[in-house]
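ugh ok fine here u go
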Amino acid sequence: MAKKQVFGSEALQQKASARRMAKVILSTKNESGKYSYREVMIDQDNVKDFIDKNKA
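structure:
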């Protein structure tokens, strides 16, 4: 079945209120020399700050 679409001002309000998310994958090196990866979903506006805070 097809989704019901909303048109007009209601659609614009829903689109504007939707949060834009980004997946950030961080790699860290373990004591054994192997890399482990961690995935984090954060707001798209906060990506640069998050990466700067988590740099090793």
